[in-house]
Amino acid sequence: CKGQRQVLHASPGYVTDGPGNYSVNGNCEWLIEAPNKDYHIVLTFLFMDTECTYDYLFIYDGDSYGSRLLASLSGNSLPPVIEATSGKMLLHLFSDANYNLLGFNATYTFSLCPLD
User: Regarding beta strands 103-111 and 40-49, do their DSSP bridges make them parallel or antiparallel, or are they unpaired?
Assistant: First the structure.
C-alpha cells in the first residue's frame, strides 16, 4: 500500500494490498465508493493470507472506523462474500512488526439488489 487512503470507484473492481508481502507496521486503507447510497457493495475474496491473530483486515460498512464493522479477518481462510449496504466500504489492513505475509486479493461489484 502507499501509506494513504486509496479511493476506488470503478465497478467491477479489484482491491489488493499489492504485489509480494505487505509491509510490517502497516496501516493501509482502501475506500470503495458506489455511485450513491442506494447501491450495495459486494466484496468477494480470491486470496487471503495474514499473520494469524496479529495482522488483521478490518472491513467497515461506511467510510470510517466508526462505521459498522462487517468483518475482522486474520489468517489464511478464504472469507465469505461480504456486503456493505451504505454505498461505501472501508478496508483497513493492520500489521505488526513481525511477520508479513502475502495479504489479500478481492474483487467487488456494485448492486441495487441485496444478497439476501
Answer: antiparallel
